[in-house]
Write a structure and sequence with these properties.
Blueprint: H1 3-19, H2 28-40, H3 50-55, H4 59-63, H5 69-82, H6 95-110, H7 117-130, H8 132-143, H9 150-158, H10 161-173, H11 181-205, H12 220-242, H13 247-268, H14 272-295, H15 299-302
Helix pairs in contact: 1-2, 1-10, 2-6, 5-6, 6-10, 7-12, 8-9, 12-13, 12-14, 13-14
Amino acid sequence: HCYQHACDILHTMYRIMTLTSAHTWMRDHEQYALLVAALCHDLGHFGLTNQFLVESRNELALGYNDNSPLENMHCAKMFKICNKDDANIFAKMELNTWKEVRKICISAILHTDNAHHFDMCKEIESFGVRMNDACEEAAAASGEGCALPEAYKQEVLAEKAHLWMNLFLHVCDVSNPLKPFDVCFKWAHRVLDEFFQQGDEEKRLGLPVGMLNDREKVNRPGSQHGFINFLVAPLVKHTVKLFPPLHELTFQMASNLGEWRNLWVKEVNPSNEEIAKRDKEINGWSEVATQLQNRVMPKSKSA
């Protein structure tokens, strides 16, 4: 967690908002709020997880009653800075607009806590099933270079706009596996270095060692397969179903799974059965990526 991570997430947010034509369904101050939230979502982070803070009875966990202590701190620190006259990036907003922006920033940042991850996955999957026809029409329009259908804009985008804002920042925050592999590789190693440092401290304090935090047991490429396969991929799959122009994310993710698989084989020398199991999972996500990509291809080309 560092300034470079903040800038990376800010740029990723900008890219996702551009691809999903956010300017056509978000108001200006909503777009502004999301970009600010992206830049500040980890403000003041010191490289330890919420679970560590709770287990060690850290003052942040005590102060926020164990409820998303880091995320609450990030929000509070951002607005304390912005409360200064020489740093108030909201100074020219009307009061009601500022209240909306504050609400959006707080909600989006709080939802970067992975404690909300699976509930968010279930919610967007359920909504996507109900609105499948509208999303398919949007995919077809995107493939043909046409404007988004009104039904999609009203019944999907406008209907759940605040959910999508929370979703976008959460997707951005776990987006390392969705980027070109050289970028993905570097960020993954930085994250694992941070986890291992926490694991060392957990051992020193006699606390439970997190699943990915033991440098003596965790294989780096192997850990990335689990992270993507179980956490990131389901979220991204349902996000792309709802937002067809984001289909490149699933395609790159599947490619990165293959890259991590090859490194894992070199480092671990797993059994044929283990390789076959992992290959099956990777092939499954490759098929999903192809299906999502085909939705936005012009009919004349995909036929």
